[in-house]
Amino acid sequence: MKLTVGVFYRSPSSNDDNDIKLFDLINRLRMTKGENLLLGDFNWPNINWSFWTSSHKSGSELKFTDTLRKFLNPIY
Q1: Is the pTM of this model over 0.85?
Q2: Does 76 map to a domain?
Q3: Bridge pairing between strands 35-41 and 3-9
Q4: pLDDT tens across 10-63, in order?
Q5: DSSP secondary structure string, 5-49?
Q6: Which of 24, 49, 61, 67 is 20 to 30 A from 55 via CA?
Q7: How many domains does the structure of the chain reveal?
């Protein structure tokens, strides 16, 4: 079995271009065969991880949680 481990740090001052590249990287990992383990500090303080929601109705926090939801449903 193949295991890919990703360790991330997203600066709290990250701009939209960097966030889009992060989402693209996570989506590319989603399409690989094998297992993936993503660890890191993504610095989105308004995400409620108990419910996978954000107090923001739009923006990068919402896009991040949507990207992770898709990640949990791998494409093979």
Answers
A1: no
A2: no
A3: parallel
A4: 999 999 999 999 999 999 988 888 899 999 999 999 999 888 888 877 789 999
A5: EEEEE--TT--HHHHHHHHHHHHHHHTSSSEEEEEEE---TTEET
A6: 24
A7: 1
